[in-house]
Amino acid sequence: MLLIGSRALKLRNPNLIQRNPLDFDWLCSEEEYHSWMKDNSHKVNPTKIYDLPEYNKKIVEGSINLEFEIITPGHSSELLNNLVNEDPDTIDTKMGKIPNLDILFTIKDSHKYKKFDLNASSFWKTAIDHFMMKEAGATIRPEYKEFHLLREKESYKNQLPKLNMSKKDFFDDTKNGVKQIYFHDDIHKAVALFDKPAYEYYLKDNEEVLTDKNKFFALPEEYRLAGAAEEAMTLAIERSLAPFPGVMTPQQAFQFALAKTASSITGGYFRKYTYENLFKILKTYPKDYYDRFLQAVESGKVRKLDATA
Description:
It is built from 15 helices and seven strands. It is of the alpha+beta class. It has two domains: about 1-155, 2-Layer Sandwich (Beta Polymerase, domain 2); about 165-300, no CATH class. The strands form two sheets. Strands 1-2-5-4-3 form a five-stranded mixed β-sheet. Strands 6-7 form a two-stranded antiparallel ribbon. A hairpin with a 4-residue loop joins strand 3 and strand 4 (about 55-60). Helix 4 (about 100-110) runs antiparallel to helix 5 (about 120-135), helix 4 (about 100-110) runs parallel beside helix 6 (about 145-155) and helix 11 (about 220-240) crosses helix 12 (about 250-260).
């Protein structure tokens, strides 16, 4: 059996994880799973066991939660098992074989953009671990890239929004589920950190939504950071603070929206940039953004959509 996840990281290098892991993640054969449960289930007092064949996983809930990923031919689990078993740096422990730091980092990197719904805690835990490991020198070795690509393919099931369309189509409720209350561009203008919304500096020529990577990276760093922060602020207002007042504070909504911006609602270069600069963006958090939005609503600069339109 292979022990992966935060438990494995804690055993491999305890300085790289700032919390106490709450569960166990294993990679094993079907036979190893049944053998482990037979010998050890009394230690965790299972209350529920979920068999998830579509994910090749078994989840055990009890006094401690357990996840068993079953090694499956043709899947990334098979490649991972081979990499760990062939690696001289693998540590063999009573809890299972512990992969080297670069393999653990490769696993972590392969699901860093994974979609979440109501709770962003898993995203932020992954992000903190990812940056700690990267700071320690962890990398995706060339011989791990085949595994990494397959693992990504298995991890990302959600469809990203298409940007090569008009604003009218992009914000069509029937197409993407975005229920607008206020004009989207008005919100962007209200929270802009410079003389105009940052995205206007890197729109593709003759496009309303699609942006230009070359223009983006030609801008000064503060404009790139502003672009990511403004997307998060606008999303926080549009999908949390305006439709569901009082559920989140402006800061909570911003952090939630930033996690979404760096994972499942953007793609390509912009998502990668936002993820790689998450903590820089957090440091630039504009505490007055929601107040500025409310003032713009009061003054008429942010217009409410006609509910009958």
